[in-house]
Amino acid sequence: MKQIKKITCIGAGYVGGPTMSVIAQKNPHIQVTVVDINQARIAAWNEEDLSKLPIYEKGLDAVVAEARGRNLFFDTDVDKAIEEADMIFISVNTPTKTYGKGKGQAADLKFIELCARQIAEVAKDDKIVVEKSTLPVRTAETLKSILDNTSSGVNFHVLSNPEFLAEGTAIADLHNPDRVLIGGENTEAINALVGIYASWVPNERILTTNLWSSELSKLVANAFLAQRVSSINAVSELCEATGANVDEVAKAVGMDSRIGPKFLKASVGFGGSCFQKDILNLVYIARSYNLHAVADYWEQVIIMNDHQKTRFAEKIIQTMYNTVNGKQIAFLGWAFKKDTNDTRESAAIYVADHLLDEEAQVVVYDPKVSAAQVYKDLDALGTRAPEANRRLVKVVDNAYEAMDGAHAIAVLTEWEAFKTYDWAQIKEGMKKPAFVFDGRKLLDRKQLEELGFKYYAIGE
Ligand code: NAD
Ligand code: UDX
């Protein structure tokens, strides 16, 4: 088996950073260098003060503290890191295309191709190249072609090793994965990567497949997870119409061991950088093979999710006497889920956008998201001028300030701390009737109704 002494990871984001930190932690004999063209991000990864790491993940600081400077390094010198490595992970972003063919659906592979060309140009000896990014099925073929045709006499083996961590639980997921998936053609290369994970993952949880199964499995896993959320969200609307309670239905259904209880929490809609992007990509791939029924089937997961976000915003407007113009609506949470500072595709962005169209005054509080990020998210939609976003939206760093004088509260992220607030005091400071729209089914209906709130929760 090829002995791996040095690993390089291109891309120091939500996946590259935590994944490589854990690989380094568990393999002290291997030097792991994470590189990125984003200098600010690398500087943040090198921060003395571990609370300033670029990503907030429980337990990440301890892993970085253990490995950084020992066998874990963060750097901007991509060429040097490529040249030195035996194994190179590509963990760059693969966003949905915003231009040209496949716009709005296909994955944009320009960053992947740039990495492949740079590896080919710089490499002087044989390398194992590992796809860590989520990629369309058969991308390994493209990678191999670029590597083989643009390098000079170097052998490359391409492996697929998609990442299944979820944000907010990244370190726990990496320490104790349900499975590690490795797709490849070359046994020696596969075994080299298996050896790295075998430092802490039991052998029966390291699954090896052919390249295409591995690439496709990642898209399919996300599609299945998102489909469960859209399924329960579809049921939530039916519950509201019929008097059933979506939590009760989810429990009854999930107790069937064939279905299982996880990922059946009704919500204002799923967010995050992966679900929508990966399903759109799956839809695009299916259409490109003329599999229109397959494409339509998966596209419905996204359509349902968009509907859920719109429905929630409209419920707020309709309940507040059909106008929110000039009314203060406090947003509890902006991140796409609890325990992360990531806001990509967060439902909060789209709900806010809808309410701002109606000239609502939105005041946002999230324990981990900055004002700059909130404005960046809204500006990126391009719905209105940046000045209008700043006129209509205020971001505060105290939840009570957000709710003081508000006509309504909307719960967008399920941060545990929201449950512990002094709801009697909050009600005092609000306009009456004091509305709460709980997009996460987080708060206690009985408690809030006893205090006199008008409480609305998804699926009840
Ligand atoms: P990210 O945007 O946080 O990080 C990607 C990093 O790559 C950025 O810092 C960027 O500057 C860097 N980069 C881009 N091109 C580069 C180049 N040519 N050279 C050096 N650096 C370059 O993205 P992420 O969330 O870490 O996701 C990365 C991949 O992992 C995506 O394909 C995503 O679908 C997949 N994934 C993400 C998650 C998640 O929870 N975020 C989970 C599983 C898989
Ligand atoms: C997801 C996948 O879970 C992970 O395996 C993959 O590697 C990356 O994409 P992530 O997006 O980080 O992870 O978080 P996840 O926990 O899956 O939640 C995604 C969204 O679905 C969040 O907005 C969450 O609030 C929502 N969700 C999840 C629900 O609304 N209900 C649920 O029951 C579960």
From TrEMBL:
| Pathway in which the depicted protein is active | Nucleotide-sugar biosynthesis; UDP-alpha-D-glucuronate biosynthesis; UDP-alpha-D-glucuronate from UDP-alpha-D-glucose: step 1/1
Tell me what reaction this enzyme catalyses. UDP-alpha-D-glucose + 2 NAD(+) + H2O = UDP-alpha-D-glucuronate + 2 NADH + 3 H(+)
**The EC number(s) this enzyme carries:** 1.1.1.22
**Residues that bind substrate:** 163-167, 218-222, 258, 265-271, 336-337, 440
List positions binding NAD(+): 11-16, 36, 41, 92-96, 133-134, 167, 274-277, 344
GO biological process entries: glycosaminoglycan biosynthetic process; UDP-glucuronate biosynthetic process
> Which GO molecular function entries does the Swiss-Prot or TrEMBL record give?
NAD binding; UDP-glucose 6-dehydrogenase activity
Q: Has keyword Oxidoreductase?
A: yes
**Which key words tag this protein in UniProt?**
NAD, Oxidoreductase
Q: Which residues form the active site?
A: 274
Signal peptide: which range, if any? none
Domain named UDP-glucose/GDP-mannose dehydrogenase C-terminal is located at: 330-445
The superkingdom listed in its UniProt entry is: Bacteria
Question: Which SUPFAM superfamilies has this protein been placed in?
Answer: 6-phosphogluconate dehydrogenase C-terminal domain-like (SSF48179), NAD(P)-binding Rossmann-fold domains (SSF51735), UDP-glucose/GDP-mannose dehydrogenase C-terminal domain (SSF52413)
Family named by the database record: Belongs to the UDP-glucose/GDP-mannose dehydrogenase family.
Its biological purpose: Catalyzes the conversion of UDP-glucose into UDP-glucuronate, one of the precursors of teichuronic acid.
Q: What is this protein called?
A: UDP-glucose 6-dehydrogenase
Which organism encodes this protein?
Sphingobacterium gobiense
